[in-house]
């Protein structure tokens, strides 16, 4: 089963706590009352030709346009080849009205690093990030590798000091057994499963590769995404353990990152637990208005040393088990996360009850998706939305927010792949549908992020033939 990933919001400036509870504070769980609005007021989706070459790659509401760029197999500015599996992404303000995009490539296995191998964290690992400079209409100015030699760079999150934190969704390395992909971990030269920081500076946009320094104290597990909360200086992280329970984490660095100007190693890792309910199973269907007071339990050994080459299944649960042994809550496949107005919103891809007429998906969790909100100042967790069935929302993954505060959800469903909007009133609508990709049935949306001025929505197609889109049009007319 192809798995779609996350993206956190592209904001480069974050405020303090902001609006109490965030824009979705009045919503209750919508398990049986989710409302669907075609186009969110934008109207029905129609086939739209790509401004690059006229091919129809997206169905959008009338009046919207797009351009694709930097597809897999094309060339970076340095002449090296663009890998596939475009995934999580964030947008930063560039010079002279341009946008700087930092984009993940979720490549797994010992397939060799792209770009300059001498600068790779692990010369055998094929994932990493690219940094692109584009205009508001998707015209590519430059594109270069910016972190290489990592693996399964799924999503991450933008940091307000001008960096992208990229997440490895794996624990592969020469010290653990092979994973589901069948790759030979003994060929890898370094341990994987960490956070890496990639500065979104002009130097990196022009070809400088980030120093590959893992944040080991933030844990070695199947990281999905990262969202920074500026008051306490914590990085909240999701975990996508496909076949097992997942946890919701926070990393408390040794110095506030806004003062340090970067994310430092050597801090404390914790997992969320529900007060008075050890190992609360939040992957199951939730009652309307579900709200929980929470606490945080310490992970004593965030970067465990393995001996005897344990199985990948054992290694990928080693950090999470420490939290669950202390009462940590159970989630299903946590993916996208975003900080917005004092609240961390995050997505449980397979959370919820199995809907009538829907079969249970593969992996841990039987539902079609949940959207959760954590309020750090209250230490309170609440359910924003639970999908009543695949026709309404089908396995949400990456998430971002529009300038109005509407959430943009990338789906990882079994049928057509949509971008859907979730408004402050709890209305959900279709905004974009991906046209079938020849020979690549697993193609899916990923990495949605609005540009700094809100004019353009950038989004990736995560597939072997991956590419990036810039979408623009009459946003004022509907839910975004």
TrEMBL record:
Protein's name in the database:
DUF839 domain-containing protein
InterPro entries in UniProt: PhoX, TAT_signal
Species assigned in the record: Bailinhaonella thermotolerans
- A family per Pfam: PhoX
């Amino acid at each position: 089963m192809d798995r779609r990933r996350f993206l956190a919001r592209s904001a480069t400036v974050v405020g303090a706590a902001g609006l109490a509870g965030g824009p979705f504070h009045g919503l209750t769980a919508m398990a049986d009352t989710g409302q669907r609005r075609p186009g969110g007021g934008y109207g029905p989706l129609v086939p739209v030709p790509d401004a690059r070459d006229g091919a129809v790659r997206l169905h959008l509401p009338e009046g919207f346009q797009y351009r694709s760029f930097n597809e897999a197999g094309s060339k970076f500015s340095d002449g090296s080849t663009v890998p596939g599996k475009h995934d999580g992404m964030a947008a930063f303000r560039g010079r002279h009205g341009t946008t700087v995009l930092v984009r993940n490539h979720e490549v797994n296995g010992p397939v060799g690093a792209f770009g300059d191998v001498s600068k790779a964290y692990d010369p055998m690992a094929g994932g990493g990030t690219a940094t692109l400079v584009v205009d508001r209409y998707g015209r590519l100015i430059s594109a270069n590798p910016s972190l290489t030699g990592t693996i399964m760079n799924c999503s991450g999150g933008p940091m307000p000091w001008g960096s992208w934190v990229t997440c490895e969704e794996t624990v592969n390395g020469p010290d653990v057994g092979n994973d589901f992909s069948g790759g030979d971990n003994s060929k890898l030269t370094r341990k994987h499963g960490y956070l890496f920081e990639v500065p979104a500076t002009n130097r990196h946009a022009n070809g400088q590769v980030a120093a590959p320094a893992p944040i080991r104290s933030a844990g070695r597990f199947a990281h999905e995404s990262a969202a920074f909360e500026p008051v306490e200086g914590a990085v909240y992280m999701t975990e996508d353990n496909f076949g097992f329970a997942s946890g919701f984490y926070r990393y408390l660095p040794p110095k506030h990152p806004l003062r340090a100007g970067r994310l430092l190693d050597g801090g404390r890792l914790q997992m969320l637990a529900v007060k008075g309910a050890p190992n609360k199973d939040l992957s199951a269907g939730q009652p309307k208005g579900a709200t929980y007071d929470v606490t945080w339990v310490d992970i004593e050994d965030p970067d465990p040393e393995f001996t005897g080459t344990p199985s990948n299944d054992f290694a990928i649960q080693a950090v999470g088990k420490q939290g669950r042994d202390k009462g940590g809550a159970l989630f299903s496949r946590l993916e996208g996360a975003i900080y917005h107005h004092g609240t961390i919103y995050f997505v449980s891809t397979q959370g919820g009850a199995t809907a009538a007429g829907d079969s249970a998906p593969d992996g841990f969790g039987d539902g079609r998706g949940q959207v959760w909100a954590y309020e750090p100042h209250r230490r309170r967790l609440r359910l924003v939305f639970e999908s009543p069935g695949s026709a309404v929302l089908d396995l949400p993954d990456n998430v971002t927010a529009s300038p109005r505060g509407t959430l943009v959800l990338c789906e990882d469903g079994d049928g057509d792949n949509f971008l859907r909007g979730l408004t402050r009133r709890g209305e959900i609508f279709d905004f974009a549908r991906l046209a079938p990709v020849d020979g690549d049935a697993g193609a899916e949306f990923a990495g949605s992020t609005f540009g700094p001025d809100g004019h353009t929505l950038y989004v990736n197609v995560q597939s072997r033939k991956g590419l990036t889109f810039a979408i623009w049009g009459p946003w004022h007319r509907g839910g975004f």
